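Researcher: Structure for this, please.
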Amino acid sequence: MPLSDANLRYLFAVSDLDAGGRPVRSKEVADVLGVTRPSVVRVLRTLAEHGLVEKAPYGKITLTERGRFAARYYRNLVERINGDFPSTGLELTPAQRWQASLVLAAALPDTEYLRRCPPILKTPEGSRCEA
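Model: Predicted structure, token format:
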């Protein structure tokens, strides 16, 4: 389930706004990320196809169990990469380092993620993600 760095940014935004399990509106995600609502709708459709979010009537968005796992997994990966970020000689701000770490996390093979959170099965039970 390869997710782009843009997909991860949106997933993290929904996760941050969804703290406590309250549904999130696409306008809130757009405001946090500084993007348009059509952009949010497009990326959320992709996240929903991966089983990471559910969209209820009137635009309410919630993370699924799989989405919570993915947000935790990829945020941890980005933070580990950021913590071990090589000295490049460039004067990067913390935000630039975090962005570069996010891009690298998205580019890495997702073998470990898939081992811990297999693709959604087409059965009533679905598939579960290991913590």
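Researcher: Any notable elements?
Model: The domain at 5-64 is CATH 1.10.10.10 (Arc Repressor Mutant, subunit A). The mean pLDDT is 85.
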